[in-house]
Amino acid sequence: MIYLPEKCYLEILRHCEKELPNEACGLAGGIVEGDNKYIKKIYLLTNTDASSCHFTMDIKEQFAVIKDIRAMGYQLVGNFHSHPSAPARLSMEDIRLAYDFKTTYMVLSLMDREHPVLNAFNIDRDRNVIEEEMEVFKL
User: Fold this and answer.
1) Residue 14 phi/psi, 5° resolution?
2) E strands within 54-103?
3) First-to-last CA distance in the chain?
4) Residues 6+ apart with CB under 8 A from 36
5) Nearest alpha carbon to residue 119 among 128, 129, 127
6) Which end of the chain, N or C, is surrounded by fewer C-beta atoms within 10 Å?
7) For residue 66, what is the enclosing H or E element?
8) Closest CA to 88 of 107, 114, 111
9) How far is Cα 59 from Cα 112, in angstroms, rounded to an integer?
10) CA 48 to CA 55: how far, in whole Å?
């Protein structure tokens, strides 16, 4: 189960809306306890591709995030990106490019701007996609 504070969800949503018509991306730091992942901090990264159908996270920003995550005593819990005009599911390219089988991959769909959808997934070594339960909660 992923536990995502509402303020973190709103950070993701605002970043993704701001980057339209391009995909937005970022990382999530937090705590892992057994099968539960508690997101504590969202890191908004630059999509260096500046594309509506693809993203690449800025490598310098990624290194800075990892440094901050370690300094705070957190772990890299997951990442996110947006789909400006597609559903909140992993594309074949997302699955093909996945490299960390412990992380959570979140996708925010902005197909319906009035009703954005955020879903979370795991990808196993055989490239099977498993949807993760996620709870967005108020602090």
Assistant:
1) -65, -40
2) 75-83
3) 17
4) 1, 2, 3
5) 129
6) C
7) helix 59-72
8) 107
9) 31
10) 7
Q: What would the pLDDT profile of 63-78 be if each residue is shown by its tens digit?
A: 999 999 999 999 999 9
Confidence tier at 28 by pLDDT (50, 70, 90): very high
User: In the sheet that 36-45 helps form, which strands lie side by side, from edge to edge?
Assistant: 129-132, 117-123, 104-109, 75-83, 25-33, 36-45, 2-5, 134-137
Distance in angstroms (rounded) separating the CA atoms of residues 82 and 12 = 9
pLDDT tens digits for range 9-19:
999 999 999 99
62-68: which pairs have CB atoms within 8 A and are 24 or more residues apart? 62/27, 65/27, 65/29, 68/29, 68/41, 68/43
